[in-house]
Design a protein that fits this description.
The chain has 428 residues and is α/β, with parallel strands linked by helices. The chain folds into 2 domains: 2-99, Alpha-Beta Plaits (2-Layer Sandwich); 107-418, Aminopeptidase. Helix content is 38%, strand content 17%. The chain has 13 helices and 12 strands. Strands 5-6-8-7-9-12-10-11 form an 8-stranded mixed beta sheet, with helices on both faces. Helix 6 (183-198) crosses helix 13, helix 7 (203-211) packs across helix 13 and helix 10 (326-344) runs antiparallel to helix 13 (396-418). Residues 1-18 have low confidence and may be disordered. It comes from Monopterus albus. Residues 1-18 form the signal peptide. GO terms for molecular function: metallocarboxypeptidase activity; zinc ion binding. Pfam families: Peptidase_M14, Propep_M14. The active site is at residue 380.
Length: 428
C-alpha cells in the first residue's frame, strides 16, 4: 500500500513537468525575489510570450504568471525552472490544436443565425458582416469610417439609432485594441446582434436604446488582428514600424495621452507595452481620439472590451489617485459584477485599474475620462487563465452574455444619473 501511495504521488508530481514537445502555456509561481528575476529573464531572453501579466516588470513574488512556451523552447525553459526550483503547472498542453480549431473556416451559418455569433471570424468576414448588418437595417444602422490603420485598413464603426428622439446621448464600445484578444471583437458582433434582435422585446435593452445611440467599433486594431489569423496568434500590438528598431508594433492601450509612458509603459519598441513615439502616434488611437473629441458632448458612457481575467475596471489606471466620481463608478461596477454572479455564477473583480491590477498609463479609458466622459470602463472578459487568449468558441456565448449583463447594468445607471429616461414600450 505504501509503495502504491508513493507511486501515485510521483505520478501526480510529474504531470506538471511533461516531456512532450508541444506548444504549451505554463502557470508559474515565483516564491522569492531571486526566482522572480529568473522568470523575468526567461520571459525576455527566450522565445516565449508572456500572457499574464502584460510585461515582465509586473512579475512579483507569489503572483501567477502565464507564459506561452513554443515547443522549441520547452526543454530549455523547463530546465531553467527546475534548476531554480520554480513551481509550474501546464495550463494548456497543445495550443496548436486549439488555434487550428478556432481558425478553421468550416462555418456555413447564415449571419442571421445565433450560431454565427458563437464563432470567431476573420477580419475580412467582420468587414463583410459590418456592411451586411447596415444593408439589412438601413433605418437603424449606419457605417462610419473613423479613420484607417497603419497598414491602411479601414476603421469602421457602426452607429445604432433605434428611435428619432432629439438630443440623445450616446454609448461608445470599442473591441480588439489588443490583437490576440479574440473574444473582444466577438462580443462587439454579439452586442450589435443582441441590440437589434431584442429592441422592443427586452425592457433593459429597449430603455438603453431609447435613451442612447450606440457606437460600436468591432476591431480597433485590424492590422494586428489580421496578423493573428495569418502569422502569429499571440500578437498583441499594432503593426507599425519604429524608426531605429527592427521590432514592430505599439501597444495602442499605452498610446493615449493619460500620464503617457510613465511607470507601467515602456519606451522600448520591442516591449509588449511600448507606448509609441508620442501620444496618439498611431493612426488607430488617433482616429478613436479624434472621433471621441468631436462627440464628447453626446457620449456619456465609454466601454472598451479586453480579455482575459474577468474584471470590470474604471479610471484611473495611470495613477493611484482616485477620480472625482470614484464611488459612483465603484457602485456601478459592483452591481454589474453581482448581476453576472447571480445569473451566470462567475466572479468578476472590480475596481480602479491601478489599484486592482497595476499601473498602466496611456490607456483609452483614462484618456476618455480626462476628456470629460465621466463614465468610462474597461471590461476584461473570460476567462481567468484556463484557456486565456485561446478561449474556445464554445465559451463565446456565456462570455458575451455576461458582458451584456454588465453593459445593461452600467448603461441603465448612467441614464438614471444623467437624464430623465423616456418611457419605453416593449413586449416581454
Amino acid at each position: 500500500m505504501k509503495t502504491l501511495l508513493i507511486w501515485f504521488v510521483l505520478m501526480n508530481l510529474d504531470t506538471g513537468h511533461s516531456t512532450e514537445t508541444h506548444d504549451q502555456v505554463l502557470s508559474i509561481t515565483s516564491k522569492t525575489q531571486e526566482q522572480v528575476d529568473v522568470l523575468k529573464n526567461i520571459s525576455t531572453q527566450h522565445e516565449t510570450v508572456l500572457w499574464q501579466p502584460d510585461s515582465p516588470q509586473y512579475i512579483r513574488e507569489e503572483s501567477h504568471v502565464h507564459l506561452f512556451v513554443p515547443a522549441n523552447s520547452s526543454k530549455t525553459v523547463k530546465d531553467l525552472l527546475q534548476k531554480h526550483s520554480i513551481a509550474y503547472v501546464i495550463l494548456l498542453d497543445n495550443t496548436k490544436e486549439l488555434i487550428e480549431m478556432q481558425t478553421r473556416n468550416v462555418s456555413t451559418d447564415p449571419r442571421s443565425s445565433s450560431s454565427y455569433y458563437q464563432r470567431y471570424h476573420s477580419l475580412e468576414e467582420i468587414y463583410y458582416w459590418i456592411n451586411w448588418t447596415a444593408q439589412n437595417n438601413p433605418s437603424t444602422v449606419k457605417v462610419i469610417l473613423i479613420g484607417s490603420s497603419y497598414e491602411k485598413r479601414p476603421l469602421y464603426a457602426l452607429k445604432l439609432t433605434l428611435n428619432n428622439r432629439p438630443n440623445k446621448t450616446a454609448l461608445w464600445i470599442d473591441c480588439g485594441i489588443h490583437a490576440r484578444e479574440w473574444i473582444a471583437p466577438a462580443f462587439c458582433l454579439w452586442f450589435v446582434q443582441h441590440s437589434l434582435s431584442f429592441y422592443g422585446r427586452n425592457k433593459d435593452i429597449t430603455n438603453i436604446l431609447d435613451n442612447m445611440d450606440v457606437y460600436v467599433l468591432p476591431v480597433m486594431n485590424p492590422d494586428g488582428y489580421k496578423y493573428t489569423w495569418t502569422t502569429d496568434r499571440m500578437w498583441r500590438k499594432n503593426r507599425s514600424i519604429s524608426k531605429g528598431s527592427s521590432c514592430i508594433g505599439v501597444d495602442l492601450n499605452r498610446n493615449f495621452d493619460a500620464n503617457w509612458c510613465t511607470m507601467g509603459a515602456s519606451h522600448e519598441p520591442c516591449s509588449q507595452i511600448y507606448c509609441g513615439a508620442f501620444p496618439e502616434s498611431e493612426p488607430e488611437s488617433q482616429a478613436v481620439a479624434d472621433f471621441l473629441r468631436s462627440h464628447k458632448d453626446s457620449v456619456q458612457l465609454y466601454l472598451t472590451i479586453h480579455s482575459y481575467s474577468q474584471m470590470l475596471l474604471f479610471p484611473y489606471s495611470c495613477t493611484l489617485d482616485e477620480v472625482e466620481n470614484h464611488q459612483d463608478l465603484l457602485e456601478m461596477a459592483q452591481e454589474a459584477a453581482q448581476n453576472i454572479k447571480r445569473h451566470y455564477g462567475n466572479n468578476y473583480k472590480y475596481g480602479a485599474g491601478a489599484k486592482t491590477i497595476y499601473l498602466a498609463p496611456g490607456g483609452s479609458d483614462d484618456w476618455v475620462y480626462n476628456l470629460g466622459i465621466k463614465y468610462s470602463f474597461t471590461f476584461e472578459l473570460q476567462d481567468r487563465g484556463e484557456y486565456g487568449f485561446l478561449l474556445p468558441p464554445s465559451h463565446i456565448s456565456k462570455a458575451c452574455k455576461e458582458a451584456v449583463t454588465a453593459v445593461k447594468a452600467i448603461a441603465l445607471k448612467v441614464i438614471e444619473k444623467t437624464q430623465v429616461p423616456t418611457r419605453s414600450l416593449y413586449t416581454v
